[in-house]
Amino acid sequence: MIANTDITAEIGKLRKEKNAIILAHYYQTDNIQDIADFVGDSLALSQKAASNNADIILFAGVKFMAETAKILVPEKKVLLPDMNAGCSLADSCKADDFKKFIYENPGRTIVTYVNTSAEIKALSDIICTSSNAIQIIESLPVNEKIIFAPDRNLGNYVLNKTGRDIVIWNGSCHVHEEFSLEGIIKLKEMYPKAKVIVHPECEMPVRLIADFIGSTSSLLSFTEKDNSNVYIVATEPGIIHQMKNANPKKMYLPVPPKDSTCGCSECNFMKLITIEKIYRCLKSETPEIKLDNDIIIKAGKPIRRMMEISEKLGL
Ligand code: SF4
User: CB 150: neighbour CB atoms within 10 A?
Assistant: First the structure.
């Protein structure tokens, strides 16, 4: 067992020797965010994965994110320190069930959220993230009929914002559906001037009392530009590390879960990644993401379509 400071130094050495880059999601623990080469949300991480000079990408995040990186740069080695780092939202949409859903709703453009398996992406016309979902839907012709999957809350949010003809897959994230409305109201009573900032994967009652709704990166930039001093944060609390880095004098209050005994406002999948696992993974260059070439080709098209639209819109 080596001490944490030594592990950090060893990771730094290995990263240099192997020309590796560590990409970390905002929901990773503070110490992982601090050693990463780049920290971001799903859209920014995809953009970074597609444009760097490293030979190895180590993904400190969950499996669908590492798969997205592999699809975008199949010639590179993409490592995920723990293959059990899945996603309840991605798991709520299995390929066979989704094929049936598409069959039952013919003639619709299939827009899927990036939080899906590579197989689901391969069945899609265009991918989106919470940073660009509205713009992606609005980039389609007004009369186009759409399937949106897999998150029902983000789907409803996008439907209300755009007024488009959208049928929505009934999936959800166990973390974002767990935030307690009562918990927010209690925090608001304690801090009446606090602003409630909410991720669109949260349920409608939580979204309805929000002062601001946005993707993880939008929530971060909102707290950077806004002039309030206290925020009630309804998304995975990992993001609060970057909020504090940007504005240490402000106060950020994580929303408690409905079940106060479960600690489930944190993403247990994201938290499977640890500094020790990153070290072992970089040293052994395993576990590595492997995907069939056919899936890489089919899933690559809708991801690239999203990235082109995002680039045109400056997102
Ligand atoms: S927070 Fe939810 S959507 Fe994000 S990785 Fe965890 S389970 Fe999936």
Answer: 27
Counting ligand 1 atoms within 8 A of each CB, the residue from 42, 62, 201 with the most, and so the one to mutate, is 62
Distance of CA 144 to the CA centre of its chain: 26
Separation of CA 315 and ligand 1 centre (Å): 22
pLDDT in tens, 80-126: 999 999 999 999 999 999 999 999 999 999 999 999 999 999 999 99
Protein residue whose Cα sits closest to atom 6 of ligand 1: 267
Rounded-to-integer distance, Cα 179 and Cα 222, Å = 20
Residue in 176, 266, 273 to alter for ligand 1 test, most ligand atoms within 8 A of Cβ: 176
Pocket of ligand 1 (CB under 6 A): 27, 62, 87-89, 115, 173-176, 236, 267, 269-270
Mutate to test the pocket of ligand 1, among 26, 43, 114, 270 (most ligand atoms within 8 A of CB): 270
Ligand 1: distance of its center to the CA of 267 in Å? 6
Q: What's the whole-model pTM score? A: 0.94
pLDDT digits (tens, 9 = 90+) for 129-163: 999 999 999 999 999 999 999 999 999 999 999 99
Written in H, E and C, the secondary structure of 3-23 is CHHHHHHHHHHHHHHCCEEEE
- Can you say how many angstroms the Cα of residue 76 is from the centroid of all Cα atoms in its chain? 22
The answer to whether the CB of 154 falls within 8 A of the CB of 89 is: no
> What's the 167 CA to ligand 1 centre distance in angstroms?
22
Q: Which residues pair with 79 in a beta bridge?
A: 58, 288
